[in-house]
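URGENT: need a sanity check before tomorrow's submission.

F., can you look over the Branched-chain amino acid ABC transporter permease record below? I want to be sure the sequence and structure line up before it goes out.
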Amino acid sequence: MDIFGVPLPAMLSQLLLGLVNGSFYAMLSLGLAVIFGLLNVINFSHGALYMMGAFLAWMGMTYLGLNYWVMLVLAPVLVGVFGIIIEKTMLRWLYKLDHLYGLLLTFGITLMVEGVFRSFYGVSGQPFEVPELLAGATDLGFMVLPNYRAWVVVASLAVCLGTWFVIEKTKLGSYLRAGTENPKLVEAFGVNVPLMVTMTYGFGVALAGFAGVLAAPIIQVSPLMGSNLIIVVFAVVVIGGMGSIMGSILTGLALGVIEGLTRVYYPEGSATVVFVVMIIVLLLRPAGLFGKEK
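Structure tokens as predicted:
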């Protein structure tokens, strides 16, 4: 069976690949949206921290003999701790300044982190084995579904939707939103707003580390893996609406699928289709699809 001249198995395989890419876009853009929406900081170091998560998982498995599941938890925690150190020592002094200062600081952090890993491991990728439990594939009849790619989609959606629920539907989320809009009022109720801000930044970058561990068995672990992705992720955030949690999730998944379809019908345009969509959206709705117009 063909769909517009393309065999159904080929179409479904590209849609799956697009959904996997969309899962990474969704999780990375979610972390950016959390940090910008709650802290008003454009975190350009997100791609480097995504790479750091993958490298820490690889190092734990290679040098310490830890398994994938341990590093899936431990690597994001370590990246989150690193983010907390950045926030407490550098970033918190820039909150009242123009966005440009935070952008420049996090860009500098990106260069430093990438430089450290490049000095030790070069630019060639490091192999990362798929965990034994998720090895192999499942025959669905119309296509063969790699088990690990299915796990990536499920894990990403679970984390993204869980994060959205906590921020939008719980008392903790209401404290976070109120603390960013009127910190003095929230502090009057006994809430430690600076600690809350620090933990929010740590959680946002931990999401990047988690995405890095998920991506490691699919792509080779390389110091440049984050820089190749972060520009696309920023485009996803802009399309969804800066600071919109659900906008980042839905837009990331949708753009991954659109990218997969473009790869089927017009392969030459797959690398730029996200930016074409961004231009169209900004022309029609400058605040993004889910952003609030000022």
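My own read: The beta strands are 2-3, 6-7, 137-139, 144-146. Residues 22-223 form one domain. If you see anything odd, call me.
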